[in-house]
Amino acid sequence: MRRNHSTTPRTPRVLGSLLLLAAAGGFALGAAPEARAAAPTPLGRVVPAPASVTPGGTPYRVTRATGIRVDDSAEVRRIGGYLAGVLRPSTGYPLPVTDRGTGGIRLHLADGDFGAEGYRLRSGAGGVTLTARTPAGLFHGVQTLRQLLPAAVERKTVQRGPWSIAGGTVQDRPRYAYRGAMLDVSRHFFTVAQVKRYIDQLALYKVNELHLHLSDDQGWRIAIDSWPRLASYGGSTQVGGGPGGHYTKADYREIVRYASSRYLEVVPEIDMPGHTNAALAAYAKLNCDGTAPPLYTGTQVGFSSLCVSKAVTYDFVTDVVRELAALTPGRYLHIGGDEAHSTAHGDYVAFMDRVQPVVARYGKTVIGWHQLTGAHPARGALAQYWGQDGTGAAEKAQVVAAARNGTGLILSPADRLYLDMKYTRGTGPGTDWAGLVEVERAYDWNPGAYLAGLPASAVRGVEAPLWTETLKKSADIEYMAFPRLAGAAELGWSPAATHDWNAYKVRLAAQGPRWDALGVHYYRSPQVPWPAR
Ligand code: ACM
Known about the structure:
The chain is 32% helix and 17% strand. The chain contains 16 helices and 19 strands. By secondary structure, the chain is α/β, with parallel strands linked by helices. The chain has helices at 13-28, 74-91, 135-148, 192-203, 229-232, 249-261, 277-282, 311-327, 345-361, 393-404, 414-417, 439-443, 474-481, 484-493, 501-509, 511-518, and strands spanning 52-55, 60-62, 68-70, 97-98, 104-109, 119-124, 127-132, 163-165, 168-172, 178-184, 209-213, 215-216, 219-220, 265-272, 332-336, 365-369, 382-385, 408-411, 459-466. The protein folds into 2 domains: 41-172, Chitobiase/beta-hexosaminidase domain 2-like (Chitobiase, domain 2, 2-Layer Sandwich); 178-497, TIM Barrel (Alpha-Beta Barrel), CATH 3.20.20.80. The strands form 4 sheets. Strands 10-11-14-15-16-17-18-19 form an 8-stranded parallel β-barrel, surrounded by 7 helices. Bound molecules: acetamide.
C-alpha cells in the first residue's frame, strides 16, 4: 500500500514566500503563537503516520464560503457536524453541513479498497474530499484533516487564519484492528465528563477501543441491579480514602454512546478472581469464611480472591456478566485474571474454566490479562500481555504457546505502554515498578516482532493502560498519557515501514501546540523538539 511516505514540505517557492509574509503579519498582529505558522502543514506530518502520502498540487484554503458537503445519510451528516463543531469556533466561519453544492470539504462513502477503517483524503485548490467505505473511516480521515490545519484551529475563540490544507493525497488504513487505551476508574474514580474528555483525546489519534477497568480492590464502579451493594458500598471509596463513586447504568450507557460517536468500542473489565476486595467487602457471602473484609484504600495487590469453591460465586459472576453484557454493545468483556496471588493455581484454572463460558453465554468474547494463558483460554479469547523485557522465559513461552494455539494477543508491555510509569526520576505522579519510560522508549519497538516465536497474525493490536493509584484528576491523566499515548496509537495504526523515531519525534512535536490549544496538560519531554511556546 505504501507508495511514498514523506514528511518533507513541498510548498512551491512563490507560495512559500507569500505564506511567510502572511506569517510575519500574523506575528505583528499578536496572534496566538501557533497561528504564525502559516505554511500549510506538510501532508504527512500527522500522528499516526499515514500508510501512504503523495504530496503535490495547490493547497485548499478553508474560507467563509466553505461548506461541509456530506452524503445524504444521517451518520455522514453527523460526522460533518462533528467536523463543523471543531472548525467553527476558531475559524468563525459558518461552515454549513449540506448535501448540496460543489467544492468545499466533502465527506463521502463509497465502495473501494479502504478496509473497515481506512480512508482517502484528496486535497487541491477546489476542495478536500474524504472518501471511505465506512463512517469510522471517514471519522479517522476527519482526524487527519484536523491535524493538517494549524493548531489554532483547536481553540474555542476566533483565531487568525489562513486555514490551508496542503495539496495531495493521503491513502490510509490501520495496521491493527485493535488500538486501545485503558483507564483505571477503580483506584481513583473519574466522572462521565472526565471519561468523555479522555475519549475526545483518544479519538484524535484514531484509538478505537476504550477499556474501562471497572472493579478492583479499592472500588466497584458500575451499578449491578441484582447486587446493589457492589456499587453503593463497594464503590464508596478509593485510594487514599476519598469518596470514590460509581457509574449508574445510565452513566455507563452515556459513556458507551459518546465513545461510539467517536468510533471507540467500550471494553468493560471486571477483574476476577483477584483484585476483588471491593466486592468481598460489599457481600460477606462471597468470602470463603463468610466474613466481609473492610474496604481498602491502599495500593497493595494480590491479597484478595473470590471464593472459587462456593456456588454463590458463580451466581455473582453470572449476574454481573449478564447485566454488564446487556449494557455493552461491544464485542468484548474483559475478565481480568491478573495477579491472583491469593488464589491457588488449581483454583484459578477451575475458576477461569467456569467463567469463560458465562461470558460466551451472554454473547461476548473474553479478554483476560495474559495470566489467562496459564489456564485454558476459550476459543476466540484474547490475552492482554503486560510483561516486560525482564519477564521470565517460561512466562513468555506460555504466552507464545497460547498464541500459536490460536489465542489472539493485545500487546501492553508494561515497560513500554503502561502510561502510569514515570518518564524520569523527577516525574511527579506515576509509579516506576516497570522502570522509567521516556517517550522514545514508549514508541521505539515493533509490536509485530515483540515476542520471539509469536506468529504475526496472533497480534491483534496494542493497548496503552493507565493505572490510577497516583492519579486524581484529568490533568494527571493527560500528563501521563501525553505524549506517550500518541506513540501507542501510532504503533497500532501505522505500517511498520513508517516506523522511525527521528521522523516520529518531529511529527510528535507538532502535536504540542495542538495540545496547548486544546488545554491538554502534557509532558514536554526533552527528547522531543517542541516548538517554543
Ligand atoms: C496488571 O498490571 N496487573 C495487569
